[in-house]
Amino acid sequence: MSIFKNLLDLGLSKKEANVYLAILESGESDLSEIAKVAKIPRTSCYGIVEDLIAKNYVTFYVKRKKKYYLAEEPEKILKSLKDKYSLAEAVLPQLKALSSKNGVKPKIRFYDGEKGVKQILNEIIGESKNFLAITSVDDAYKIIESFEDFIQRRIERSLRVKLLTNYSSLSLKLKEKDAEELRETRFVPERFHFKSANFIFGDKVAIVSLKKNLLGIIIEDEDISETFRMYFEAIWSCR
Prior knowledge:
Residues 9-70 form the Transcription regulator TrmB N-terminal domain. This protein has helices at residues 3-9, 14-26, 31-38, 42-54, 74-102, 113-126, 137-143, 147-156, 169-176, 222-238, and strands at residues 58-63, 66-71, 107-112, 131-134, 161-165, 183-187, 196-201, 204-209, 215-220. With 239 residues, it is α+β, with helices and mostly antiparallel strands.
């Protein structure tokens, strides 16, 4: 089996696989060299390279105000895939239990990197409904670059949120602004520390792993979202 076919099986598109192999062949190269080896226009190459960066297949450095790209170490790619597998494995028991009730399989979508997480946050806003959130505010601000923008857009859309979070100086400051920022915040015991950002909105549940290599998942299913909503309300009522 060819390397190209293997990359497609790992979830890359044909264009992404082509550009990734061009980067491997070129070594540390600028965008023009990569486009030349991949035999595609430079303008098309840029977007594909950015997608590969978001998926942790490619990295870059800047030298004399110019970007140079190189392939990530295989071990890092493997870790990213393992993290994605672990995330799916964590929710699998609930998916199997709920889907067996009605025979309808839930829709599941995976997202990689900051660009992927931004798509998740955009979808939450696009739902145009109040929602529930469980996360470490400190980690979300630190790791998700678009998190503050997400909060501002939520407020502009007049979307209310119930937030369960860890107690910290930052989360305490947020709570003080709950009324003006359309939020209701409650704290969980200090012994609990959330390692993912979790959102329940409409018939969907979004889970974003708060690690350096960002990845997320959206599960679209009425029963699953309702179950997560019950979990949330059970914790909420105890605080």
